Amino acid sequence: MDEPVFELSGATVRYDPRTPAVDGVSLRVRRGECVAIVGPNGAGKTTLLRALLGLVPCSAGRALALGRDARAWPRDALARVVGVVAQREEPAFPITVREAVEMGRYAHLGAWRAMGAADREAVGRAMRRTDVETLGTRWVATLSGGEWQRVRIARALAQEPLGLVLDEPTASLDLKHEMELFELVADLVRHDGLAALVVSHHINIAARFADRLVLLAGGRVVADDTPERVLEPGRLAAVFGWPVAVSRLPDGSPQLYAERSPRTPGSATP
Amino acid sequence: MAALILGIALGAAPLAPRDLLLGVLRRGDPTAIAIIWSLRLPRVALGFVVGGVLAVSGAALQALVRNPLADPYLLGLSGGAGLGAVLALAAGVVSAWALPAAAFAGALAAILVVYRLAIVAGGALDSRILLLAGVVVGAFAGALLSGVLAVSEASQVKTATLWLMGGLGGVGWPGVVALATYSAPAVAVLMAEARALNLLALGEEPAQHLGADVARTKRRVYVAASLLAAASVAAAGMIGFVGLVVPHAVRLLKGHDHRVLLPAAFVLGGTFLVLADTLARTVFAPVELPVGVVTAVVGVPIFAVLLRRWTNPSSS
């Protein structure tokens, strides 16, 4: 069953009838594959995720999870195959790390069933995998940004999903925690065979860890290829509206950097 | 348990422990039997169910609107129920049965208007809009209520005011049975949504990603919790702060898993109200305080402490 875990084909989402937020986007993410969605603000990255997760309807085209229309999945069934680390989350009441990770089992437990041996095993495995097993009794509000992100990944893993979606997972993390998080995601893809879809502002880090970059601009896919092929200075300069150059790290991965403005300040925008 | 015994034992007419025991077994002094079986027992039972139901309703609504300071009456129920009752009185209806029925109808009407407003404005039962709509509808009903009272006769005003203050006296066993019948299915619905409420406390989007059907959960919880509050208002008038303070105390004691929280809130809410009612009956006996006065006197200071704690999380 090498069906893509996530698939969009010609998907179009309109909040307003004239300008679609996502316009005829097609992409596939299979198991064992890490795909990053990059692009400037307002490119439609978040809307694309919402369509993929069945949270908004497509006015044209299709959004599929494991071959089934994303909006046809009951939410609990979808949560058993797809784990999501959303951008924002603020618990209204204090909970412990273990309680938070156990919530990953709810989709398996339904309304009434108590946690069984298999559930506890899944929770323990997820917490070991993300290195948060020593944090079990801490209140989540006392965690550092990096710890909290790892706890949320542990919770997603406790769902025992085939696919993982991460929306700006490192937005507020420092260098070390950002690298740790991406190394973890890369490892989950290599060793556990998950399909990972990451939305990130950080093109350079995405270029180092993703198998493919999907460059989005104005709701359309501008490029969908390996990082080497996508990071092409002319194309990126056009998409971001700023002159850029690309260099290479010793390991060969391409890195983007923005040029200082060649023009006087104030006339820099095209 | 002790609270229940205390509630049966204490009252305006003192009963000796021996009469009490015999009375419960329907033996001995017929006056004691009558006091116990037709006054004290139904009153304690009603107090327990009303207190329990209000606390469960409050706990569920706090999770729904993601705000630990929410209260069943915040959603416009009190205004609606009061208006319903006062309209019935003004229309010359005096039957002890009609008053709760009218209050229930008024509360239901308020629930419908608030729900409708929240759907029209937000589409997805946005909790902020729900709260605002509740406050506005409550204020509107309150204004109408004052208007009706102003043009009513003094005796009606007194009846209505006393009823609005809340009391567990009037309804007897039929009232207990009616409330229990209304409440059981609503409590069952809330229990079935207990895990979904845990998820909802994380935020709507994370809740969806973890498998909750958020729109369905919000709809069910709102309707069930409102029905509970409306039924309790119909049975016992306006009794404030039980739905606010009790869930809080339980959250502090038992944590935030609603599968534990909801049943615990029921038991503690029931106990709290029975104790408050016992106080209300005995402190100035033979004059009886409205139980709502006691819950408010106890509840407001607790609320103040909680509010402080909520606004300065570091001090908790």
Description of the molecule:
The complex is a heterodimer of chains A (270) and B (316). Chain A has 270 residues and is an alpha/beta fold. Chain A has two domains: 1-81 and 161-228, P-loop containing nucleotide triphosphate hydrolases (Rossmann fold), CATH 3.40.50.300; 93-158, no CATH class. Chain A has ten helices and twelve strands. A six-stranded mixed β-sheet of chain A has the order 6-7-8-3-9-10, sandwiched between helices. The longest helix of chain A is centred in the C-terminal third of the chain and has 18 residues, at 175-192. The termini of chain A are far apart. Chain B has 316 residues and is mainly alpha-helical. Chain B has 14 helices and no strands. Chain B has a single domain, classed as ABC transporter involved in vitamin B12 uptake, BtuC (Orthogonal Bundle), CATH 1.10.3470.10. The mean pLDDT of chain B is 81. Chain B has helices at 2-9, 17-24, 30-64, 77-90, 98-122, 127-150, 154-165, 172-192, 194-200, 204-209, 214-236, 242-254, 258-282, 291-311. Helix content of chain B is 77%, strand content 0%. The A-B interface holds A 53, 55, 74-80, 82-84, 86, 88-95, 99, 103-104, 106-107, 109-112, 141, 155, 159 and B 63, 66-68, 191-196, 198-199, 201-203, 205-206, 208-214, 251, 255-257, 313.
User: For the record, what is the CATH homologous superfamily label of chain B?
Assistant: ABC transporter involved in vitamin B12 uptake, BtuC
CATH topology name of chain B, in short, is ABC transporter involved in vitamin B12 uptake, BtuC
Tell me the structural class of chain A. Answer: alpha/beta
Structural domain count of chain B: 1
Q: Categorize the overall geometry of chain B.
A: globular
Rounded average pLDDT of chain B: 81
The averaged pLDDT of chain A comes out at 91
CATH first level of chain B: which class?
Mainly Alpha
Structural class of chain B: mainly alpha
Measured on Cα atoms, how large is the radius of gyration of chain B? 20 Å
CATH topology of the largest domain in chain A: Rossmann fold
Largest sheet of chain A: 6 strands, mixed
Give the number of helices of chain A: 10
By CATH's scheme, which homologous superfamily of the largest domain in chain A applies? P-loop containing nucleotide triphosphate hydrolases
Helicity level of chain A, as a percent range? 25-40%
CATH class identity of the largest domain in chain A: Alpha Beta
Poorly predicted runs of chain A: none
Strand-residue proportion of chain A: 15-25%
Helix content of chain B: over 70%
